[in-house]
Amino acid sequence: FDSTAFAHLAQLYAYPQQNDVVLKFSELNTPNLKAFFERVKEEVWSDWKELGQTLAMNPRPTPIQELPFVINQHNHFYINQVPPPSYEEAT
Q: Fewest Cβ atoms nearer than 10 Å: which of 17, 35, 69, 75?
């Protein structure tokens, strides 16, 4: 649950907000949440600032690997496997 809470709080505290009403409310009324976020950030993400400056925000997608497939007489294809037997073969 800590990681889920941290992820939600990171959206609030670490990224610019279009409307800072919730941020101001949270900082004034729930300082323990801000403290929790800062503690976890320091303990788990000690390189937070460095990663924010050097990590690609839009990494290149992994190239799609072509998979071998088989097409049967009914134009059904089966990836990485042998087509299932026909009804006659199975009975």
A: 75
CA dihedral 28, 32, 35, 40 (to 10 degrees): -140
Higher pLDDT, 17 or 78: 17
pTM for the complete prediction? Answer: 0.56
- Torsion angles phi and psi, residue 54, rounded to 5: -110, -20
8 CA to centre of own chain: 13
Structure tokens at 8: 């939600």
Domain segments of the chain as ranges: 2-54
Instruction: Indicate the DSSP class of residue 1.
Output: -
Tens digit of each residue's pLDDT (9 = 90 or more) over 74-83: 666 555 555 5
Residues 6+ apart with CB under 8 A from 39: none
